[in-house]
Design brief:
The structure is a single chain. Strands 1, 2, 3, 4, 5, 16, 17 and 18 form an eight-stranded mixed beta sheet that branches. This protein has a seven-stranded parallel beta sheet with strand order 10-9-11-12-13-14-15. A three-stranded parallel beta sheet has the order 6-7-8. Helix 3 crosses helix 4 (205-217). The chain is globular and about 65 Å long. The protein has helices at residues 89-98, 114-124, 172-179, 205-217, 229-238, 256-267, 277-283, 294-297, 302-307, 311-328, 335-351, 371-382, 387-393, 396-401, and strands at 25-32, 41-49, 52-57, 67-69, 74-77, 79-81, 101-106, 133-136, 140-142, 163-165, 186-190, 221-225, 242-243, 271-273, 355-357, 419-422, 436-441, 444-445. The protein has one domain: TIM Barrel (Alpha-Beta Barrel), CATH 3.20.20.140. The longest helix is centred in the C-terminal third of the chain and has 18 residues, at 311-328. The chain is of the alpha/beta class. The structure holds zinc ion. Residues 83, 85, 107, 361 line the site of zinc ion.
């Protein structure tokens, strides 16, 4: 552990014999946005001991060592990305920490064997090498020739190790029992028919239903990968508790079936993960100027990024752009118009007290670990969501999805000290979350 030693000094201050405890870390006179949605508290001190926030006050401080001067700075909780994948976790984890993402949720991936999950968890559990805390599901439950194995061809997928190709609902009980031995948040079921033509067949409803029934026997939740209204309703009707994309779903608030689906989710204390940035990532090859943003280039060298724009990537982007234009009835792609309906739905869901969190699907092309979570927040702000709500979605709501809201997701006494110190106010513009001064995980300043 690279943690600074806890120094307990009995200081006898001049003219006063009070004992004062020196804290492992103290952030003084900072503007605090605690993640719960409570108004910003100006000029407070945040005291950290043993990796946790010990107290918060606004008195004149006496400690002089291990003090970070927070004057004119803003403190927010470490961010969660509730949907990432990685095939190179040492590199990707370091980038996540660089951009203030101190916890991630990984719903499977092409290398995700039980051993790979364990290795990621273990690096997430320490704080000397930059890495976020890792929460994850089981391997994908899907079928052969379906998403994502067929649509995102990779030789890494291995039946029984990184993915389960279901052929019969009778297999499901055994497979759920098998994965339930591991510290997973729940079962990942992939319903989707693919991101762009040519589409594949969806997993049948009966399979999704059975997965939910079996998962319940082990008190496991189901995390459904759905990315249109049909798949959304399939997931809800089966009884899934979590929808790990909102992109592609477009709720009709006058449609009885949609309204009862939303009510069903509210009843089961469900969570919806946004991942709107996926649509933006698809369009990157048509916008090379997006690769030149200085904040992106801090961790992703511009030359390497330009090399990713291959003729293949451009042609895929053009196909998807056509599809988006058709879906939204647009002549030209206009970012505001694409995201506005989705953000309005998200606002509506938040108004009904749905737990909605932020995710990116980073690990896919032009979807950057760490940086894209800030893009996600910018898209939500562009669509009109208040900055305070966006920050709460990326912190407190995410901890609620992981059922760790007692120890993470907000800056309050007793909670683990995962914090980001910003040089500018994220409430005036959410893009100020990229003006990162210091990232702290477990009370330890992280190397960026
Ligand atoms: Zn994904």
């Amino acid at each position: 552990m690279n943690k600074s030693v806890i120094v307990i000094l009995c200081l006898i201050s001049l003219g006063c014999s009070n004992q004062s405890i020196d804290y492992e870390l103290l952030i003084s006179n900072v503007n605090l946005i605690d993640g719960t949605g409570k108004p910003m508290q100006r000029g407070v001190n945040v005291y950290i001991n043993n990796g946790r926030v010990e107290k918060i006050d606004s008195v004149q401080i006496e400690q002089t060592e291990s003090v970070i001067d927070g004057t004119d700075k803003y403190l927010i909780p470490g961010l969660f990305d509730c949907h990432i994948h990685t095939t190179n976790y040492l590199q990707d984890f370091s980038n996540l920490i660089h951009y203030g993402v101190t916890s991630v949720f990984i719903p499977g991936g092409s290398l995700c064997t039980n051993e790979y999950f364990a290795a990621m968890r273990s690096i997430g559990n320490q704080d000397s090498v930059p890495a976020p805390r890792v929460f994850h599901t089981s391997q994908h439950f899907t079928m052969e020739g379906r998403h994502p194995v067929k649509t995102y061809g990779s030789s890494n997928w291995r039946d029984g190790e990184t993915v389960f190709f279901l052929t019969d609902t009778a297999q499901i009980a055994r497979l759920v029992k098998q994965v339930a031995q591991y510290p997973i948040m729940g079962i990942k079921v992939t319903i989707e028919d693919g991101p762009a033509p040519p589409f594949v067949e969806r997993i049948p409803q009966g399979f999704v239903d059975k997965i939910v029934v079996e998962a319940e026997k082990y008190e496991l939740e189901v995390f459904a990968h759905a990315s249109d209204n049909v798949e959304f309703l399939m997931a809800v009707n089966a009884g899934a508790q979590n929808i790990i994309h909102y992109v592609g779903i477009d709720l009709d608030w006058t449609n009885e079936e949609h309204l009862s689906a939303v009510n069903a989710l509210l009843d089961r204390d469900a969570t919806i993960v946004t991942t709107l940035v996926i649509d933006k990532s698809f369009l990157y090859p048509l916008h090379p100027e997006w690769l030149e943003v200085p904040a992106l280039n801090e961790a992703y060298p511009v030359d390497e990024l330009h090399e990713m724009i291959t003729p293949q990537a451009i042609s895929r982007a053009e196909r998807i752009a056509e599809m988006i234009k058709q879906d939204y009835g647009l002549d030209e792609i206009a970012m505001e118009k694409i995201f506005l309906p989705q953000v309005q739905d998200i606002q509506q869901l938040l108004d009904q007290e749905m737990n909605v969190t932020l995710g990116t699907d980073a690990g896919n092309l032009f979807n950057f670990h760490g940086y894209s979570l800030h893009e996600e927040m910018q898209l939500l702000e562009m669509g009109g969501l208040p900055t305070m709500d966006i920050l709460k979605m990326g912190t407190f709501n995410a901890a609620r999805m992981m059922h760790v809201q007692d120890s993470l997701g907000s800056i309050e006494p007793g909670k683990l000290a995962d914090l980001i110190l910003l040089d500018a106010d994220p409430l005036t513009s959410i893009s100020n979350t990229l003006k990162i001064n210091t990232v702290i995980k477990n009370g330890v300043v992280q190397k960026r």
